[in-house]
Design a protein that fits this description.
CATH architecture: Alpha-Beta Barrel
Distance between the termini: 9 Å
Helix content: 40-55%
Strand content: 5-15%
Order of helices and strands: EHHHEEHEHHEHEHEHEHHHHEH
Largest sheet: 7 strands, parallel
Number of domains: 1
Shape: globular
Strand order of the largest sheet: 1-9-8-7-6-5-4
């Protein structure tokens, strides 16, 4: 059985005491080329610490720590620095993910510790999501394609290939697909938009991250997308809507979320089960270890594997760790997921 690779979606709590608004403002300054050394002295250690937590948890393909709004951080640059006569097409030099510029020290430490380069996952907001949130539900082909060109430039500028840090996989995040009832778009146009966005990724895996698989048929014909990400842990019935033979016929693979991250629902369930109030006790690491321990995550992954076998290429937590109350609890979820996937891979010979 091929090894299932552990990863994460991106967001993660800031270190205690870090000012989110200040970090976001510095990120914008880096993207526009106006950041000064004092900004970097604040920004780089915060991003580096967050990435190191993911590595320490055992995640094989950690996503860069996403600290900014997934819409505004793109559209602001597309609006402020457009190509002449091309609305929503950002100038290539400004298609920047600032967090990536802070990861060199982490990569160098990883190389020193392991003798290998850190293989990284990079997520970008998809053209459809950008369009729906900034323009509306009735999609105009020309504007959507312009947004796709911008996303392509963010992807191209996010390819890192050094001795210590490498971009191994891209994820195009389209959480509204299948959930927005007001969306009106031709499937062929959307497929073309995704292929345009991903064309600079080269031979790297390109995932589409979904919150619903209701419209997964639109993904199958996208040649540049080879991995379909499914939020499975909090929505177990999601896998019922997928057909293995269809996935195989289009030569696609799956990324399955196998650890829950829906903190509000998890806390409510925990409070009822243990007659307590987590929002008062703040013992969220205990929630992770009781409700989403490695044993439970392994069971969930085993069930998914029974359905899809070696079509599962990646697994990790669902998205949403950035909203968790503190790094310790979020780290516990990451570690439990990484441990579960490692354990699952280790048992592959006896299945």
């Amino acid at each position: 059985m091929p090894e299932i690779i552990s990863d994460d979606i991106g967001s993660f709590p800031l270190p205690a005491g870090a000012d989110r608004e200040k970090i976001r403002k510095i990120a914008s300054a880096i993207a526009t080329g106006t950041a000064v050394k004092a900004d970097r002295d604040i920004f780089d250690p915060v991003i580096g610490e967050m990435m190191q937590k993911k590595i320490d948890a055992g995640i094989m393909r950690p996503n860069y720590p996403q600290v900014r709004d997934m819409i505004q951080s793109y559209t602001q640059l597309m609006e402020d620095y457009p190509e002449e006569d091309q609305p929503w097409v950002v100038e290539k030099k400004h298609a920047v993910l600032p967090e990536l510029s802070a990861l060199a020290p982490v990569g160098k430490k990883f190389l020193k510790d392991t003798g290998e380069a850190l293989q990284m996952r990079v997520c970008v907001t998809g053209p459809l999501e950008l369009y729906l949130k900034s323009v509306g539900g009735s999609v105009q082909e020309d504007l959507l394609m312009n947004m796709s060109k911008s996303v392509s430039r963010f992807i191209e500028n996010s390819i890192i290939d050094t001795a210590y840090l490498k971009t191994a996989v891209f994820s195009i995040d389209e959480p509204s697909l299948g959930l927005n009832p007001n969306m009106s778009i031709d499937a062929d146009i959307l497929t073309e938009a995704w292929d345009t966005a991903a064309k600079k990724a080269g031979r790297r895996d390109v995932e589409i991250h979904l919150h619903s698989v209701n419209a997964v048929d639109m993904v199958y014909s996208a040649d540049k997308i080879n991995v379909i990400g499914v939020e499975y842990a909090a929505s177990p019935k999601a896998l019922d809507l997928l057909d293995k033979s269809e996935i195989e016929s289009y030569d696609k693979f799956l990324r399955v979320g196998v650890a829950r991250t829906d903190i509000s629902k998890m806390a409510a369930e925990y409070n009822e089960r243990y007659a307590t109030d987590l929002w008062k006790t703040k013992d969220f690491s205990d929630l992770a270890d009781k409700m989403e321990n490695a044993r439970n995550i392994t069971k969930r992954l085993t069930k998914a594997y029974e359905l899809f076998g070696d079509r599962i290429k990646y697994a990790g937590p669902d998205c949403g760790l950035g909203s968790w109350p503190g790094q310790d609890a979020a780290y516990a979820i990451l570690k439990n997921a990484a441990d579960a996937i490692t354990e699952f891979n280790g048992k592959s010979e006896v299945r």
